[in-house]
């Protein structure tokens, strides 16, 4: 099993990189574990508290639960991945997504390199980089469509949480990356290089397994 971590700032193009890899890999060979599914449940908070919830701080992620699921997958056990809503800031009480073990596990999210224990489980660490202006434009478009926000709310959140949290927690984790992809999913050369590294690592892991 090969575990790949893909991190980078909000709106940097991480999801696009994952989608590009999906188009190049066999569907049965990999699964994607999104960090966003493991946000801590905020059902106990008031509407006012939810409105200012900081999704860009490492404390917002239930890393223990994510690592538990990753260990289960490594042991060949399927897991029930939680479903989280940015609109309600709550984890679904009735719905989960069944994830089966695969040769490649991709863990994707802005904060996945901030947890040392999670980093140590990764075979390849990829940081997707992009200019702040490009990231902001993507954040505005995404949050309006997917999270029910208006432009003022998005800009206020960017100023008070997204930007400072990026500088404090996310940008520094670039030093842990084995590969840095500038221009996000639009950098086809970098994606081709990443695919070659994945294929080489898989062959190496398979050779070691056969020796054992």
What does this structure look like?
There is one protein chain. This protein is α/β, with parallel strands linked by helices and 212 residues long. It has a single domain, classed as P-loop containing nucleotide triphosphate hydrolases (Rossmann fold, 3-Layer(aba) Sandwich), CATH 3.40.50. 43% of the residues lie in helices and 21% in strands. The chain contains 7 helices and 7 strands; from the N terminus they run E-H-E-H-H-E-E-E-H-E-H-H-E-H. Helix 5 crosses helix 6 (151-170). It is globular and about 55 Å long. The two termini are 14 Å apart.
Instruction: Specify the CATH class.
Output: Alpha Beta
Contiguous runs where pLDDT drops below 50 for at least 5 residues: none
Radius of gyration: 17 Å
Looking at CATH, the homologous superfamily is P-loop containing nucleotide triphosphate hydrolases
Count of spatially separate domains: 1
Strand order, sheet with most strands? 2-5-1-6-7
| N-to-C span | 14 Å
Question: Could you state the order of secondary-structure elements as H and E?
Answer: EHEHHEEEHEHHEH
């Amino acid at each position: 099993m090969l575990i790949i971590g893909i991190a980078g700032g909000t709106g940097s193009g991480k999801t696009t990189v994952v989608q590009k890899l999906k188009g190049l890999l066999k569907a049965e060979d990999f699964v994607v574990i999104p960090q966003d599914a493991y946000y801590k449940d905020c059902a106990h908070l008031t509407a006012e508290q939810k409105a200012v919830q900081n999704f860009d701080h490492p404390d917002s992620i239930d890393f223990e639960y994510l690592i538990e699921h990753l260990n289960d997958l490594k042991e060949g056990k399927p897991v029930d991945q939680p479903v989280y809503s940015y609109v309600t800031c709550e984890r679904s009480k009735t719905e989960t997504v069944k994830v089966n073990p695969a040769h490649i596990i991709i863990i994707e999210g802005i904060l996945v390199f901030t947890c040392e224990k999670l980093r140590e489980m990764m075979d390849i660490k990829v940081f997707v980089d992009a200019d702040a202006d490009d990231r902001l434009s993507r954040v505005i478009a995404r949050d309006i469509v997917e999270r029910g926000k208006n432009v003022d709310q998005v800009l206020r959140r960017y100023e008070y949480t997204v930007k400072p949290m990026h500088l404090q927690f996310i940008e520094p984790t670039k030093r842990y990356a084995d590969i840095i992809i500038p221009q996000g999913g639009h950098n086809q050369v970098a994606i081709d290089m990443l695919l070659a590294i994945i294929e080489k690592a898989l062959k190496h892991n398979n050779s070691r397994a056969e020796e054992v």
